[in-house]
């Protein structure tokens, strides 16, 4: 990753063809001790706001995956640990919403839900029209700042 920020790396991943969730989660793979291919495969279904349903932004899903792997729990009886995880995730999502205006894909893009699961072809025009590169950068930088401050 050289001297790039997590946000810059996430934006680069998005611009190379990964979806928003893959770009954010993939940018953290190495620092979370998960191999990159596993990270992008695990996060692949969250693109387009959950399989192009345009619901929760894929970048926010990627943020949630990062936070879950970093701070998640396995003890089902430890309700405090579960509550703390949810509190942390809400904090980063609220920051994302403050910075971007929403955490819902269709609201961020000004689109309605597509009728097809067919992915949009990535062209230069696609990248010019869509704010997704900046959105994944914002998401990754938000999570990175949270992790560094906690």
What key phrases describe this protein's structure?
150 residues; mainly alpha; 0% strand; 61% helix
The structural class is mainly alpha
Question: What's the overall average pLDDT, rounded?
Answer: 94
- DSSP helical segment count: 8
Q: Please trace the helix and strand order, writing H or E for each element.
A: HHHHHHHH
The biggest beta sheet is recorded as: none
Question: Ends: how far apart?
Answer: 22 Å
Q: Please mark out the parts with pLDDT under 50 across 5 or more consecutive residues, or reply none.
A: none
Give the oligomeric state of the chains in this entry, treating copies of one chain as homo and distinct chains as hetero: single chain
Query: What is the rounded Rg?
Result: 15 Å
Number of domains: 1
Q: How many β-strand runs? A: 0
Kindly estimate the percentage of residues that lie in beta strands according to DSSP: under 5%
Helix percentage range: 55-70%
Characterise this structure:
This protein is an all-alpha fold. It has one domain. The chain contains 8 helices and no strands. The chain has helices spanning 6-15, 20-28, 36-42, 58-71, 79-100, 105-109, 124-129, 132-149. The chain is globular. It starts with 5 loop residues before the first helix and ends with a helix. 36% of the residues are buried. The model has no long low-confidence stretch (mean pLDDT 94).
Topology summary:
Elements lengths: L5 H10 L4 H9 L7 H7 L15 H14 L7 H22 L4 H5 L14 H6 L2 H18 L1
Please outline what is shown here.
The chain is 61% helix and 0% strand.
